[in-house]
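In this section we walk through a basic example: taking a raw amino acid sequence and producing a predicted 3D structure, encoded as discrete structure tokens. The instruction is simple. Fold the sequence below.
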Amino acid sequence: VNVRYMAEGHWRSAGKDEVVPAPVTPAPPKPEVKPKTPAPPKPQTEPQPDIQTSPQTEPQTKPQTDPEALTTEPPSDDPVTKITPRKTCDCWTAECGWCSDEKCRVSHDLTDTSSQGISVISPIKWVNLNTVFFFDSNGDMIGSFRFNRKGIFLTGCVKCRTPRPLPGGEEGVFYWSVVFEGSELVLYISGEEHWRQELVGECAERYSDIQEFAFGDIGCDGVWYEVEGQMVSGSHFTDNDTCGSECAE
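The resulting token sequence is shown next.
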């Protein structure tokens, strides 16, 4: 029996001893798998190389060492200024566009002489950080102020010495605030000054343009205080007090 088949573009006959290969059906192409877009890298924890700073000064008031003295202290009532407690919504989420969305930031000129600073009640631990991000008038991130019981990290353009561990030595919930006093950035914990850093040169110029701030790492258990007439919160803080889906039950 002769079988005719195509091979290399020619027809020919196959004899009895020849095996005619069956036609090969090509495999369908594999569906294209689009890679997931990873989250951008979070601003570094360790400070960047020093550009221009002055030596860190010692606190004017010695921090208390009694753990029981370092309890939560919400700001005192002011009969004139309205202060509203709000949750410390984390801006470093996809929902907030990794802090790029204005709804997750607070408008405030931190370097204005009338500013009362940023006041927060939150846990202070050995590993987990409390983070405040700073933004300029163009909405660009200037840097961040981050701290835990091990030390303080001010990123953007300055390198700070790591101070001694926070007073008390115990993890817990504390009232703390970050304030500009002239050209110096100061951290108060439970009303006591713990750290002070003077900014000079390029650093002073960059940080003098802080017009917005936002929070990171603190989570839904933290509370900060909005000062009427000085601060304007984005909708992420004011809508249902849930930080979008972050703190929804």
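Looking at the output, two observations stand out. Residues 1-14, 45-72 have pLDDT under 50 and may be disordered. The CA atoms of residues 9 and 241 lie 75 Å apart. In the next section we compare this with other chains.
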